[in-house]
Amino acid sequence: MSSAETSPAQNSPEPDAEPIILRAPTVADGADLWRLAKGTGVLDTNTPYAYILWTRDFAETSVIAEIGGEPAGFISGYHKPSDPQTLFIWQVAVDSEFRGRGLAKKMLFELVSRSGASRLETTITADNQASIALFTALAREHGTELQRKPLFTEDYFPSPDETGEDHAAEDLYTVEPLQQS
Question: What is the rounded CA–CA span in Å between residue 75 and residue 64?
Fold first, then answer.
């Protein structure tokens, strides 16, 4: 499927539920990605410009979900320049109004399917059980296990005096092989 096409996600939880549209984001979606990230209250929120730029340069490896014409969530990712068969997932966000519908899983499975990648990497803090469960489900779907190893310890990040916040260590999680259908 090309990035210009949309696909309604299957298996809505309720028969009357509005369809979920999953598609590659456009530049016009950049501000919505920023709002979604900010609205989570837990993601590192970058400048709106970064999200607008992201939608221009990495739309093919990212996904936005819409429900009832409203932005409901997104995943941003990219193919690693040093290993184009690896899809790195940067941020996963779902608006609080749309949580509990399996939206993150639907977006992730769609994105992995259309990426053509044979391996996925992401970083997750130890306390983010929702993300660990999400990527564990992906590994299970592909008949493998989620692998974890330390990557960025707290000392890599600027001090709380500089940023006003502590940043937890980010562990590298890997799912491989990704089985393409």
Answer: 7
Q: In this predicted structure, what is the pLDDT of residue 181?
A: 66
Whether 14 has a pLDDT exceeding 70, the answer reads: no
Q: How much is the pTM? A: 0.89
